[in-house]
Amino acid sequence: MGFFGMQKAETPEEVPAVPRQETASAPAPARAGSTVIADGITLTGTLKGEGVVQVEGVVVGEFDMTGAVIVSESGLVRGPITADVVRLAGRGGGNVHAREHMRLEPTGSLDGDVTTASLVVEDGGSLNGRCTTLKPTPALEPELAQVRKPDDLQFGPDFELDEEKG
Length: 166
Known about the structure:
The chain has about 170 residues and is mostly beta strands. The chain contains 1 helix and 12 strands, in the order ββββββββββββα.
């Protein structure tokens, strides 16, 4: 009898050895690279690559990314940005080419021109520059084909809505 009425455990020699089975490790999920330029860091030069870059510090140079560039409230980018998606909550000084979408957050400001397919400027966001809208992607074109052409539009006192015709 062991301590507090418990049975004494078997010694290691008495326990039969169980062969260990090696488990195959699952491959790591593939993901695009992710980089954070931390607050207090200043990076100078050209950043090219694929993935997501979050800027909390200062970047003086050019972004040429396949993926996203996110500038947080403490972040500052001085130079042009080219990426699929750009989200700006900090400050930017340079032209932005967002192939898919750009969002200017309430705390964000941009001094430069924007070229994008989709732009959102939230209340409080500051855009000092021109905006050029890209043509919609081919996936959206079938939806736009159903919109009336200028020749089909009618105006004036005799104009009837489709629902009124009958």
